[in-house]
């Protein structure tokens, strides 16, 4: 007898429960075959943008663009928003990779690093006015270390002149971001939106647009087809510069609408409940414990547990019951498991997972 697997991996992850129906409808209506210059695509682009704005409460001075991935957005951010220097708060492998991309692009990035399983202490940040952009990863997918929303507000208040870019890859839409606290926010869809990989979403405000335009006027390179000016020129027509992931944009709009119908408050409340179920289950456990020690910095959406003994044995124990969890990242591959807690995952699945962890 084959047991249906539920993917609690931190991305790609379990598909949102309405995705299959939307894919069937898209194939029926031949959505993957339409021109990205057609009126049909313009309608899809406009609907997805408006629905995302409603779901995430995005202000009118922010603009939504579509890319191939969040990894691409790292590169585009440096190209469009940094002439000389950026500053990176690093609390894991992914925030570190963004810093390396800034180096590879020939800028002069600087960094402050937190120990693994922790976030940067904002009181230790000393910045000169020459830094144009500050990068912060709200929820580090590799370690499960999460900045509080208060941290974002503190950073904005302390550095009102610098552009602030927020990596929200594994936390949105589950986390309630205040768009007054930053200038750029980005994510990809294969995590908490429960969609197939292959689409990044970049949300920037007018300050970012002005910076890119000023660099362009001074003959500074801001990249090619996916520069902010080129993205904006096409977005005014509800289009993209290139042939995009039309199906991905279509599905994102449909799932965002489904989440509005479900209720974003309910989704966020359930996210908190499910994470509490797991953290409570391993409280005092003899061989499994949270990797992040400080409770306020424990991720709700990517729960990283440190395991004494054989990680593969624990994964096998869970897989026998249909629950597929992620391995640790990088150097922690044989020491951690990572558990995604996204809207596609039910409370009942997490209650079963908690029981299995207790019994292990």
Structure description:
With 360 residues, the chain is an alpha/beta fold. The protein has two domains: 6-15 and 263-359, Aspartate Aminotransferase, domain 1, CATH 3.90.1150.10; 19-260, 3-Layer(aba) Sandwich (Aspartate Aminotransferase, domain 2). 39% of the residues lie in helices and 17% in strands. The chain is built from eleven helices and 14 strands. The protein has helices at 19-28, 39-56, 70-81, 93-104, 149-158, 206-217, 228-235, 246-262, 264-281, 311-319, 347-359, and strands at residues 6-8, 62-67, 86-90, 110-113, 133-137, 139-140, 145-146, 163-167, 184-188, 200-205, 288-290, 302-307, 323-327, 336-340. Strands 2-10-9-8-5-3-4 form a seven-stranded mixed β-sheet, sandwiched between helices. A five-stranded mixed β-sheet has the order 1-13-14-12-11. A two-stranded antiparallel ribbon has the order 6-7. The longest helix is centred in the N-terminal third of the chain and has 18 residues, at 39-56. The mean pLDDT is 96.
């Amino acid at each position: 007898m084959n047991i249906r697997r539920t993917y609690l991996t931190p991305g790609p992850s379990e598909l949102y429960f309405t995705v299959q129906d939307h894919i069937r409808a898209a194939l029926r209506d031949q959505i993957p075959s339409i021109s990205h210059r057609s009126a049909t695509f313009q309608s899809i682009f406009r609907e997805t943008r408006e629905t995302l704005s409603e779901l995430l409460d995005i202000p009118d001075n922010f603009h939504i663009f579509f890319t191939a991935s969040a990894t691409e957005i790292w590169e585009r951010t440096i190209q469009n928003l940094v002439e000389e220097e950026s500053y990176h708060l690093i609390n894991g492998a992914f925030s570190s990779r963004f810093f390396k991309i800034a180096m590879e692009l020939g800028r002069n990035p600087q960094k402050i690093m937190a120990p693994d399983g922790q976030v940067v202490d904002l009181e230790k940040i000393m910045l000169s006015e020459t830094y144009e952009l500050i990068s912060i990863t709200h929820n580090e997918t590799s370690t499960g270390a999460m900045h509080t929303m208060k941290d974002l507000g503190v950073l904005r208040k302390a550095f009102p002149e610098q552009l602030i870019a927020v990596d929200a890859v594994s936390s949105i839409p589950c986390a309630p971001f205040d768009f007054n606290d930053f200038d750029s926010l980005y994510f990809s869809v294969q995590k908490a939106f429960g969609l197939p990989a292959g689409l990044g979403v970049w949300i920037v405000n007018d300050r970012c647009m002005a910076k890119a335009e000023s660099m362009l006027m001074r003959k500074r390179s801001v990249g090619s087809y996916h520069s902010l000016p080129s993205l904006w020129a096409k977005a005014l027509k509800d289009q993209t510069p290139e042939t995009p992931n039309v199906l991905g944009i279509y599905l994102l709009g449909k799932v965002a609408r489904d989440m509005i119908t479900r209720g974003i408050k309910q989704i966020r409340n359930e996210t908190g409940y499910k994470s509490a179920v797991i953290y409570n289950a391993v409280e005092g456990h003899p061989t499994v414990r949270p990797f992040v020690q400080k409770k306020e910095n424990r991720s709700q959406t990517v729960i990283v547990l440190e395991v004494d003994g054989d990680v593969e044995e624990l994964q096998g124990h869970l897989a026998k019951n249909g629950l597929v969890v992620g391995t640790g990242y990088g150097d922690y591959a044989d020491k951690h498991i990572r558990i995604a807690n996204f809207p596609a995952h039910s409370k009942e699945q997490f209650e079963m997972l908690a029981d299995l962890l207790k019994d292990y």
